[in-house]
UniProtKB/TrEMBL annotation:
<dbReference type="InterPro" id="IPR004619">
    <property type="entry name" value="Type_III_PanK"/>
</dbReference>
<feature type="binding site">
    <location>
        <begin position="107"/>
        <end position="110"/>
    </location>
    <ligand>
        <name>substrate</name>
    </ligand>
</feature>
<keyword id="KW-0808">Transferase</keyword>
<feature type="binding site">
    <location>
        <position position="129"/>
    </location>
    <ligand>
        <name>K(+)</name>
    </ligand>
</feature>
<comment type="subunit">
    <text>Homodimer.</text>
</comment>
<dbReference type="Pfam" id="PF03309">
    <property type="entry name" value="Pan_kinase"/>
</dbReference>
<keyword id="KW-0547">Nucleotide-binding</keyword>
<keyword id="KW-0173">Coenzyme A biosynthesis</keyword>
<feature type="binding site">
    <location>
        <position position="132"/>
    </location>
    <ligand>
        <name>ATP</name>
    </ligand>
</feature>
<dbReference type="GO" id="GO:0016301">
    <property type="term" value="F:kinase activity"/>
</dbReference>
<feature type="binding site">
    <location>
        <position position="184"/>
    </location>
    <ligand>
        <name>substrate</name>
    </ligand>
</feature>
<comment type="similarity">
    <text>Belongs to the type III pantothenate kinase family.</text>
</comment>
<keyword id="KW-0067">ATP-binding</keyword>
<protein>
    <recommendedName>
        <fullName>Type III pantothenate kinase</fullName>
        <ecNumber>2.7.1.33</ecNumber>
    </recommendedName>
</protein>
<keyword id="KW-0479">Metal-binding</keyword>
<dbReference type="InterPro" id="IPR043129">
    <property type="entry name" value="ATPase_NBD"/>
</dbReference>
<keyword id="KW-0963">Cytoplasm</keyword>
Length: 255
């Protein structure tokens, strides 16, 4: 059984898994100020809550878009499990052929998502990862990573709208009863939910036009569940895509 950690700008996801299944997952706020001791206590408590023992852990793997936390979490995991975790980055085998201008610039989270999509879904494929940013990755028919997009995340966009305007409030992410809102809050909710759903649909159409092929579309990330149900295109919601990718990469690198 391994411990996989995906560190995002806003939230961090932890998963405990083996060949058969994911035993448990947990999501907690990414805090750049926490020490390795504090993260060790947090991880230890999560294991206790989920009734899982550290003795079964054979190793760990970390993907992080917050570089300063990679070694902090690696140290925390070593303190509670006695194992040194692999950090996804330069020199780590992924099996992914990256055909972009500078492969070193590709975020580890996008690499991990693409590795999982390559292993599990038909190609060509599009992967949306909806978190602080909404990112898109494209795999061609051969499974090569050929590029993508980076867009403002749903909450980031809405928080900016509220912050930069005098009369628009902060809202919760839930769909209104109608697309056409009749009050300020419902208008903002409609824009956040249906506007982003329409964006996903439109981007899929344009990429299919560019590739001249029908694509498999997968969505993951903490905000995907709020948007995907309102899309007109078929999109597979896979909340565990990143953890699956981490497990595959771990197995490729650890004998």
């Amino acid at each position: 059984m391994i411990l996989a950690i995906d560190v995002g700008n806003t939230n961090t996801v932890l998963g405990c898994m083996d060949d058969d299944k994911i035993h448990f997952t947990a999501r907690f706020a990414t805090d750049r100020t926490k020490t390795s001791d504090e993260y060790a206590i947090l991880v230890q408590n999560l294991f206790m809550v989920n009734r899982c023992t550290f003795s079964k852990i054979e190793g760990g793997i970390i993907s992080s878009v917050v570089p300063e936390l990679s070694l902090v979490l690696q140290d925390a995991i070593e303190k509670v499990t006695g194992k040194i975790s692999l950090i996804v980055g330069s020199g780590v085998k992924t099996g992914l052929n990256i055909l972009i201008d500078n492969p070193a610039q590709l975020g580890s989270d996008l690499v991990v998502d693409a590795v999982a999509a390559y292993a599990e879904y038909p190609k060509p494929a599009i992967i949306f990862d909806m978190g602080t940013a909404t990112t898109l990755s494209v795999l061609d028919i051969r499974g090569n990573y050929i590029g993508g997009m980076i867009m403002p995340g749903v909450r980031v966009a809405m928080e900016a709208l509220s912050r930069e305007t005098a009369q628009l409030p902060h809202i919760s992410l839930e769909a209104p009863k109608r697309i056409t809102g009749t009050n300020t809050v419902d208008c903002m909710k409609s824009g956040a939910i249906f506007g982003n759903a329409a964006m996903l649909d439109g981007v899929i159409d344009r990429i299919e036009e560019e590739l001249r092929q029908t694509v498999t579309v997968i969505a993951t990330g903490g905000l995907a569940r709020h948007i995907v149900p309102y899309c007109k295109r078929k999109i597979i919601l896979d909340n565990d895509l990143t953890l699956k990718g981490l497990y595959i990469i771990y197995k490729k690198n650890i004998k």
